[in-house]
Amino acid sequence: MAQHIIPKFDETAFNCPRCGAYANQSWYLGSAYDKERAETYGQTLPKGTIDEFAFSNCTHCNEISVWLRGKKTLIYPKITTRAFDLTEVPNHLADDYEEACLVLADSPKASSALSRRCLQSILREQGFEDKSLNKEIQKAIDSGKLPSHIADSLDAVRSIGNLAAHPTKDTSTGEILPVEPGEAEWNIEILEFLFDFFYIQPAKTRKRKEALIEKLKAAGK
Ligand SMILES: [Zn+2]
After folding, report:
1. Which helix (H) or strand (E) holds 35?
2. Is 219 domain-assigned?
3. Which of the ends of the chain has fewer CB neighbours closer than 10 A, N or C?
């Protein structure tokens, strides 16, 4: 698969937020015209410019995406700005992850609630179920089954999120609670590490094995 280039303000080419294709983008500024006149009489005489926004126009689908000029952020359509391949990740986990990414900028609290719930689902499905997320993380770390960089990151998620000191956060994942600075981003990163370790790498290994078996078969072994 070709590399996914995240849409970025003022760039001339990226994967289009509207159609997903990698395509050249033309940039426009807008002007405003009287809504009623336009709707009633089809008159589109410019009233003035709308400086706050910029518009990227995809040369592939010809659709427009809307950006805030000052903040250089994409405001329409709402898409995730992460480019993580979720093909091998089970749907129920991928859904929570995608939504956590989608709301990250607007609501770190909502994002964290989703990613904590997703984190707990992964740990439970991998056999680390316990009374609370904090204990489940401890179980996963203690198991010795995780590579050290993942164990360290899990430990960081727990301390950044202050899980031990925050009983509700610890036991009722999925609830909307205050977040520490950086917590929502960290939660998403650890999800990517765990997806990679538990789902993506094993799938790669399985495919390599299957390819090898096919080769051996073809060679008459
Ligand atoms: Zn497009």
Report:
1. helix 35-41
2. no
3. N
